[in-house]
Batch of 2 targets.
Target 1
Amino acid sequence: MQEYLPIISLLVLAVVVAIGFIKKINLGFFALGAAFVLGTVGGMKASQITAGFSSSMFVTLVGVTFMFGMASQNGTLELFSKKVVALVGKRTVLIPILMFVLSAFISAIGPGHIAAGILMTTFAMFLAFEMKINPMATSLYAKLGANAGCASTLSITGILAAQLSNPMGYSGFGLHLFLSTLLSGFIFTLVVYILYKGYAVKADNPMKWSEIPAFNKQQRITIIVIVIVVICCIGFKLDTGLFAFLAASVLILTGCADEKKAIKGIPWGTLVFICGVGALVNVINKLGGIKLVSDYLSSLMSANSAVAIMSATSGILSWVSSTTGVVMPALLPIAHNVAQTFGVSYVELMSAIIATSFAAAISPLSTGGAIIMSSYSASKETTTEEMNNMFKTLFLLSVANVLINVLMSWLGVFNLGHLFY
């Protein structure tokens, strides 16, 4: 029985997702039940099963959506978006570019994709609703930008890559890695831009700048609080979710928002949806389902396919785990062995692994996709069917992004012509 658990776990995941979409039920509750049954059969303790329900992700999602929900409720985001639209004027096609560039810049100078991605993606979603433009596309531009800029030498990803690689004798690849990840993010952003017709973005702009009212006292306080959150989370690397709760408390105490309305606006169903599926995937990982897939890919490896297969492996792992917490520590040492065995460039392997891992990070199973879903349901009333469709769309986009990066790896794009290393 034990030897069949990896296969069984993968089949359970497929069944859960299929039933969720067919019956239009909340996948989170169903996934938690399936995780309990599967984990129990696999000999896991209850504490091991529930460990996959990410408390840190839950706190982050609740805190950020709670804070931005207040900013939406008191009209701050609506007024701010009108001012942004007024500045852009008729050049609303610049909005997607603005979202990507600003997110990439913030990500590159701070701790990377986590804080910058959460803050910018949430803001982009609320902004899109206020401007009446595509919320999915607008938030994707922001998240893809945050991922694209996250591997600079100043960010946690770039620093971790150096820490993991230096003991193996590799250094001086900082610019190469940063440009590789930036290129990967830019290419898929271009795909999303074309897919969602970003070149044809048109937002309502009924007022000129002079016709837009000034921020009132509560709105000014809200803006100050959000700016402080951005500075503290990016500049001082404080926890985004916990700090957002502190910021929300300040907004309540200063009378800037209605506490009861803000709490009702938190998308509890979506949060259970996200974390419940994550718990099931964690059980599958513990039972060997993910390793089964990764081992199969590794068995296919050769000198010509090594970079592409390592890229694909990182993408698959990233769908169910953290890039910096799991993928990089697990795969970079393997990349060193592969480089020596097959005579390929370690820096190219590393760049492909990290870029593809972040390509998968728009999946709803990751923080990036999760914050898009939670922000969407916090911005408007949604149905379970709508959430299921968004889950499917984000996951398919994530798959497409990974496939594009695997193709780039196979074509040798991540060696960047050996210009930077």
Target 2
Amino acid sequence: MPITYQSTVVNASLEDVWNRISDFHDLSWAPEVISKCEKVGDSGGREVGAKRVLNDAFHETVTRVDAGAHILEYSIDDGPSPVSPGEVSNYLGVISLKPITMNDGPATFVEWSSAWDSDSEEAVGFCRGIYVALLNSLKASF
């Protein structure tokens, strides 16, 4: 089972980071990475079942939202190679936030990981690059 794991520290409070990242339909904080985020269906962006299409290519669905634990999980249902349905299955992305107490102000530890079933490792570098860019954008948005 291939996996990716990325993390960063954002110099903002846990609640501020959660409010920004937990709306599945709003990636306006990452314009360098996501040029288009299209809402699909009637579910709100903070609800299980919320769907989106990113950059006219990645079809994703929220599978778990735990606001108390600050965890968001989602699947990639369709996408281009190397994350196409013919190459990967059971894709699960997880975003998890934890507070950090610092002397110079609040901060949040952000983890973004993913795992899937595949006989290929090609998606590892592809996904890692996207998630690193998204984490950098998140950091810069505060």
